[in-house]
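Here is an idea for our session: we take a single protein and study its fold together. Start from the sequence, derive the backbone structure tokens from it, and show both lines together. Once you have written the record down, we can walk along the chain together:
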Amino acid sequence: MWPKQVDFGSENVQRNILAVAAPMMAAQLLNLLYNIIDRIYIGKIPGEGTIALAGLGLCFPVITMVTAFSNLFGAGGAPLCSIARGKNDAEKAQNIMNNAFFMLVSTGMILTAAGIAFHRPLLYLFGASDATYTYASGYMMIYLLGTVFVMISLGMNPYINSQGFARTGMKTVILGAVTNIILDPVFIFVLKMGVKGAALATVISQFFSAMWVLYFLTGKQAELKLRFRGFRPDIACICEVIKLGFSTFCMSFTNSLVQIVCNTMLKTFGGDLYISVMTVLNSVREIAHTPVFAISDGASPVISYNYGAEKPDRMRKAIRFMTQLGFAYTLLIWGLISVFPEFFIRIFNSNTELVRAAVPSMHIYFFGFFMMAFQFAGQSVFKSLNKAKQAIFFSMLRKVVIVVPLTLLLPGLGNLGVAGVFLAEPVSNFIGGLACYITMRRTILAKLPAA
């Protein structure tokens, strides 16, 4: 039996957000298992776990790029669907979803072909050495074969959530995550496939997730259904989706750019060991980010729907609740990471040399992590209200304008070295997070009536 649909236009706003955010949080935490479980098992490979982690870390820009294009059409179209539903325009909402699916599949095929053709020069550009290239190419070539499945799963699941079926969206990820957990040790250790086994397990898992999404969106229970008969791409609709999704795309794309720059500088100032350290820190950051992502994503359809329904009082309540809950969580997780850094590091690798290098790096990298709550809150509101220009600007500001230049400059200042690479992140959190949130408060929140 499918779960009850959440009504975004009535009932308690906080309850609406939690009703969507809770299963989305569970889904996103499980989604992490696609890659996190890979890293945990790869980091435990006897005798080669540390260097294998570095190889896997070199693939992050590619994985992030696939996520970026998934978000371009998924996160770009889902808020528009919610706005259209709020206006009772089901035809427009369905058209948005159909065109998004077309673009996800088309783009996935292009990325697969391009990635396979240029994987070698790309990996060396990303900071590969002769020692790490073998591991990186082994994972990347297999992962790319499943690009279309990944994009359908990640890109179409927001359209399930935008209809109020958050628990169904959670099941999308549960199916793939459980499959990945089961297959990873079999392929990596039993069949002795190493990093190639981890990639194969991920591809198979994403295939099952994609099939589940298609099963629901073409079935009877969905309010908006994928329909392929007589379909023709709507260029105007696609452009509208891209316009809004470009902000989320920029966040993922610039994350990929930052990863490339970081790996390059770490290779120069610290060698392959520090690429392994960054792989661990990125993994911990993904775990730490997930709940606050879920909170902002859970609030997004509520804000979008009530924007379309012209209920500003409910919008104000949703924005405030999202911000307060996100701040409380990020403050708590910063405290835990600061007090127990080794616990988080040893989840992925227990090599003495790596742990010794990772502990001070983690303290620097996660300093003031609570500032991310303001970045997420501001970005979520801009995206939810179809304020594409503002969303894009603040996506670019934090990563391209602040992080990348600082990552290139700080290592050479005052003999900071690798510490300078890790310092760029907290500086950007303070400057970019505050700029985004203050702008949102003054341009949007201040104009809404008091709750």
User: Anything to note?
Assistant: The mean pLDDT is 87. Residues 323 and 377 are 6 Å apart (CA to CA). The chain has 17 helices and no strands.
